[in-house]
Amino acid sequence: xxxxxACKKQISSSVxxxxxxxxxxxxxxxxxxxxxxxxxxxxxxxGKANSKPELNASVSIEGSQGDHYTLAPNSNGAYxxxxxxxxxxxxxxxxxxxxxxxxxxxxxxxxxxxPPIDTVNYVIQAKGLQINVxxxxxxxxxxxxxxxxxxxYIIHSLYNSHYxxxxxxxxxxxxxxxxxxxxxxxDTSSTIVLGSSAKLSQDIISAQPIIAIPSSSExxxxxxSIRVKQYALTTDAYNYFxxxxxxxxxxxxxxxxxPSELTGNIxxxxxxxxxxxxxxxxxxxxxxxxxxxxxxLPAWQADLPFNGCSADTLVYIYTIPGSRPPQLxxxxxxxxxxxxxxxxxxxxxxxxxxxxTAAFPYCVDCTIRGTNKQPSFWK
Length: 379
Prior knowledge:
Layout: E1 23-29, E2 35-41, E3 52-53, E4 58-63, E5 68-73, E6 78-81, E7 91-97, E8 103-106, E9 109-110, E10 117-125, E11 128-136, E12 144-156, E13 163-166, E14 170-173, E15 182-188, E16 193-196, E17 204-214, E18 223-232, H1 235-249, E19 266-268, E20 277-278, E21 281-282, E22 286-293, E23 312-315, E24 318-319, E25 328-329, H2 331-336, E26 342-347, E27 355-359, H3 361-364
Parallel strand pairs: 1-20, 1-21
Antiparallel strand pairs: 1-2, 2-3, 2-6, 4-5, 4-7, 5-6, 7-8, 7-9, 8-19, 10-11, 11-17, 12-15, 12-16, 12-18, 13-14, 18-22, 23-27, 24-25, 26-27
């Protein structure tokens, strides 16, 4: 009998600890809408951070006929320009000067406006929801599309807290503006969604999948909304995003697409050999929002994140049973006044045995995972 041994050797790759931190540029120059350009730096795979924002840079937009607009720094590497009227007859480019004096510029790109979104709808499937988008260009002039989205949905805490700690020495009934039972959580696109009608006789995109939501997701447990934004792309921009999608989402197996070098339209003027990641586009963006109520869905069971949660009764003075001499624990003082636990309801008993039911913050305070301020667009 022949025995085969498979040996495994750990390989340390210099890629995971490369000293380079390349500039990453993300954004769209938007006519008649707010333009947001995000600048970050690549980080090592072995590091803990996903990206590093590029702060204190000078960012501007330059038109092919001499127009010039300066973007204001916002936060986390975002640079913003309030709505301005950009000409569809001009080409535009992005110019960047970092705090270290390095200069970057994109190629001049045409203004390519997105046609309206026809509909955003959802399809109930066996394992959840499929969100789709439908669009078309009657001028037969777009052909290449990209979509991203923002999801917003209601979440509840496990327990509804009717009391709150005040000044670390007392409690009070919880007012409406301090409500922590219902919140709104949000997520943004984590994948690149592309579509093309270039091989079709008409410029029509039908039932383009945007996102699949499992039936057990908390997102659709109460009420869910998604805003889909649509971009029109040039052929070069579409090819770039196709390659970016392959490199970031479709790798891992021997039959998957292999990594390819990304060649965007942004260049380092100070050091032409330095790679820069990103592709600047220009054009108006169209969008559409829909709401989905759980009452209109099958009776799916949501997988809520409250494993291990329980409500305990905490009293002002607790005597440990059988202790001699009596050992006292001032539970309200030690657990509620110190914010270790959040009071839920008042327990009406004779002092010192009155107190509160309480639980750990994750079980009670929805603002840990969202905001208790209703979004302005919420119906």
